[in-house]
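Hi team,

Filling in the usual template for the complex we talked about on Friday. All components are listed, including any nucleic acid strands or ligand strings, so the model treats them as one assembly.

SUBMITTER: L.P.
PURPOSE: interface mapping
COMPONENTS: four
RESIDUES: 344
SEQUENCES:
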Amino acid sequence: MVRTKIALVTQPVDLIAEAKRNWDKRGWAESDAMAAATSITRAHQIVLSRINQALLPFELTFSRYEALALISFSREGALPLGKMGERLQVHPTSVTNTIDRLEADGLVERVPHPSDRRATLAKITGEGMSRLEKATDAMESIRFGLGQVDPEPVIRITDVLVEVRRSAGDVP
Amino acid sequence: MVRTKIALVTQPVDLIAEAKRNWDKRGWAESDAMAAATSITRAHQIVLSRINQALLPFELTFSRYEALALISFSREGALPLGKMGERLQVHPTSVTNTIDRLEADGLVERVPHPSDRRATLAKITGEGMSRLEKATDAMESIRFGLGQVDPEPVIRITDVLVEVRRSAGDVP
DNA sequence: TACCATTAGTCGGATGTCCAACTATCTGAC
DNA sequence: GTCAGATAGTTGGACATCCGACTAATGGTA
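RESULT (copied from the run log):
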C-alpha cells in the first residue's frame, strides 16, 4: 500500500547540515535556500509516511483522506470534482484518480450535477462518513505525523510556510 | 516532463486557514497539526514544482540533481548506490531508478566496486559535471524555489523543520 | 439562431517513491 | 572450511502527481 517506513535508526550526523557545508565549501551560493528546500522535502516525506501508515488500516491514503474530509464539509455532502481540485490545489486528473479509488471502495459515489451536465459530483456515502470518522481518530492520535513535535513548533511550521505559500499566491 | 505549473492566480482566501476553521467547527482535535502537515505538503508541492521547472532545460529533476550533486562531492566522483540511498534518505529502488535515468542520459556511469562484487558505483561523467554546474546556476538563480521568500524566513524554515526531522531520528 | 471559445472530466503517458521478493555476494560463527 | 544470516542491487507492482490531448457541454456573441 503506502506506508514508507521512516528511518528506524538515528542518524549519526545531520545530513542536511552536512550537505550545506559541502555546498559552501565548493563556493556555491544560496546554501540556506538549498537547506530549506531539502528540509521541506524531508519533512514532507516523514509526515506523509507516518500519516499513510496510520491510515493503512482504513484503506486510505492522505490524498483520499483529504478528499473525503473536504466533501464531508460541504452542505450536501457532495462536491463537483473541479471544485475539489481547486480546494485541494491538485491537478484535475489527480482528483479523477482519487475519486476513482474512493468510489471503488464505496466511500463516495459519482452523481450527475443537477444543472450542469458536464459536471460530476462526488458524494460521500454512509460508509464513507464512518470511515472518515475512524480515520480522523487515528489522525488525531498521531497528530498528523507530528506526534513527537511540541505544539509550539507545530504552530511555527504553519507560520513560516505561509511565506512560501504567499509567494505562490496562496494567501491574499 | 516534470514541471507542474503553480497556481498563476491569487487565491481569494487562505485555503489552509479555512480548512482549519472547518476542522475546529466540527469539533475535531489537532487542527494545528493538520494545518502544519497540510502546509508542509503544499510547500513541498510549490518548491518542487519551481525547481523541476527550472531544471527542465537541463533534462534534470530535483531527484537527479541531488544525486548528481552528491556524487560530485565524493573524493573519487563515484559512490556506491547503497551509500547514496543512505545520504539522500530514499529507498534503494529509488536510487536504482534515478541512476538508470542519469546513466541513460550519459551523466553518470555504473562501474563495479573495486573490492565488493555485490556493489556498484555511480561515477559522474564529464558531461555530468558540466550539466551539474549549469543546473546549479539555475538553482541559485531561483534560490531553490524560494526566490520570492526573504532570507530570514528561509533560515527559519530549516530551523523549525529540524524539530520534525529530529522526531524521525534525523538529527543526533 | 448559429458558432466558437471556455469549462468539466477523463484517458494515456511520464516521473518519483515505496514495498515485497529475488539473485549474487560477503561474513562471521562453528 | 562451511554455512546461515546479512548486505547490495534489481525487478515488478502499487500510488500519487503532473501534462497533453480529447470528448461533451455550456455560453456569450454575431
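MY TAKE: Chain A has a mean pLDDT of 94. Residues 8-58 of chain A form one domain.

Thanks, L.
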